[in-house]
Amino acid sequence: MTTTTADHNISAQQKAVEEDLVNRVLQSFDACENPRLKQLMESLVVHLHDFIRDVRLTEEEWNYAIDFLTAVGHITDDKRQEFVLLSDTLGASMQTIAVNNEAYENSTEATVFGPFFLDDAPEVELGGDIAGGAQGQPAWIEGTVTDTEGNPVPNARIEVWECDEDGLYDVQYADERMAGRAYLHTDASGEYRFWGLTPVPYPIPHDGPVGNMLQAVGRSPVRCAHLHFMVTAPELRTLVTHIFVEGDPQLEIGDSVFGVKDSLIKKFEEQAPGTPTPDGRDLGDQTWARTRFDIVLAPGAWDFAFRRNPPECQCFT
Ligand code: BEZ
Ligand code: FE
Asked: Residue 166 and which of 49, 54, 59, 240 are 20 to 30 A apart at CA?
């Protein structure tokens, strides 16, 4: 659904007043010496004014929006990033990912990064357990990392992180635990394997303004069950993605941050208690699951670090 100002019954004189303002704001950027900054600011102004004019924004609504953004800022700290949640729930994060990760041949699709990555997770050996004490159904995850021509990628770094069976990441507990996360490297044949937990659906933090917004519009804060991956290797595009769980009922309802891609939905095959495990691990009378995720990296290095630790901002410095 798109409306334009033409749909509104406004006089030619009123239209001229509104357009004159847009043009004067645009002209205010004429002296900007940074062409990219100029483009960003001009486009922002065009779209922002279009929005205000299309919805005929009331002053009360404008005040409400300012209060909302203020609340988003107030709840944000080094552990809680409400602006990212806002971007995620509006689909802006996934749109940015789409724009920057154009499909390349058979490369694995990217999805949202989320706020729960830590860059000091422990390393595990191939076949190691990333649970680190997090509770849940054990899951054996294995696969290969190759380039788009099928060549194995040895020594690729694979970061994985996930929540426990209660839907909480380690960082959401008050103690200093580190669990449900680790990194490992592919072997000489580009293969990897590790024990993790069968992912479960969980809500994004929704006790703040973004949660209020979701409730007001009748949306669920729940994310489809997933396990996060970030895969890096020299000369190849860094991949930030998840795998989702086939049969997860939340897939029908929808993912609160629009992160699901069909190609990333994997079958977690449940194994009866006593079924021999691939590495001989004794799981007693527990059920366990296994899945396979073969990862294909697109060519071209991309320095992922800027997302977490921006280099000098080229816009406002
Ligand atoms: C997550 O997958 O961890 C996540 C992603 C977006 C918002 C909140 C959580
Ligand atoms: Fe997550």
From this structure: 240
Q: Which ligand is nearest to the CA of 259?
A: 1
pTM of the model: 0.88
For a mutational test of ligand 1's pocket, the pick from 116, 210, 230, i.e. the residue with the most ligand atoms closer than 8 A to its C-beta, is 116
Q: Is 112 in the pocket of ligand 1 (CB under 6 A)?
A: yes
CA gap 196, 290 in Å, rounded: 10
Kindly report, residue by residue over 251-265, the tens digit of the pLDDT. Answer: 999 999 999 999 999
Q: Is the CB of residue 223 below 6 angstroms from any atom belonging to ligand 1?
A: yes
Ligand 1 lined by 116 (C-beta under 6 Å): yes
259/273 Cα distance (integer angstroms): 33
Residue environment code for 90-114, b if the CB has 16+ CB neighbours within 10 A, otherwise e = eeebbeebeeebeeeeebbbbbbbb
- For ligand 1, whether the C-beta of 104 sits within 6 Å is no
